[in-house]
Fold this protein.
Amino acid sequence: MQARSATLPDAIGIEQMIQVHVADGTLLPRSLAEICENIRDFVVVELDGEVVGCGALHLYGMHLAEIRSITVTAKAKGKGAGRVLVDALLMEAKRQSVTCICLFTRIPDFFGQMGFQVVDKEALPDKMHKDCLKCPRLHACDETAMYLGALPKHAPGAMSARSALEFVQIAQWQS
Ligand SMILES: CC(C)(COP(=O)(O)OP(=O)(O)OC[C@H]1O[C@@H](n2cnc3c(N)ncnc32)[C@H](O)[C@@H]1OP(=O)(O)O)[C@@H](O)C(=O)NCCC(=O)NCCS
């Protein structure tokens, strides 16, 4: 089982693997255009020459990166591909000198056994600004935030997540 950097010919397969888990909210939707634009974020894992999983590492800066869009096809589940993907993304984070890796998940036990710890979402303002503040489940989020490494002390140039949340609540109250 081998992980490798994704290339543009993998993009359609990546879109299809992600799409399987979008309807139930397990993964955020990623359009083909978005996947192509960010193909260098992705790694894929191959089993017997066939791509059976993918995952991405979104870089916010040296203080934080996020593991996202991680999935393995149904027939390859339980054979170690998920762990291979996480290891490959952590290696890439290390190569980029990133000091904290975060993720939001409904399966904290899977990531917990790889060393990730649960954290309050507000400790990750970059992620909240990128996705949460425009998410319809903002106030009913069923995902667990997790991190590995050293939590960022502050996100450069970012409003704190609490301030941003209050800003959204005031805007909603006024409308
Ligand atoms: C989660 C997922 C990527 C795991 O992939 P996988 O290839 O089946 O996982 P692995 O075979 O590498 O499992 C590694 C370990 O995690 C455990 N594990 C696998 N899925 C798990 C889960 N849902 N919850 C808890 N532990 C899990 C395995 O038992 C194994 O433990 P072991 O090393 O002690 O034997 C895969 O089930 C998947 O694609 N799920 C749907 C999409 C999804 O939920 N993505 C995560 C979004 S944050």
Observations:
- The pocket of coenzyme A is lined by residues 21, 26-27, 70-72, 77-83, 103, 105, 107, 109-110, 113 (CB under 6 Å).
- The two ends are 53 Å apart (CA to CA).
- The longest strand covers residues 50-61.
- The beta strands are 2-5, 42-47, 50-61, 64-72, 100-105, 117-118, 144-149.
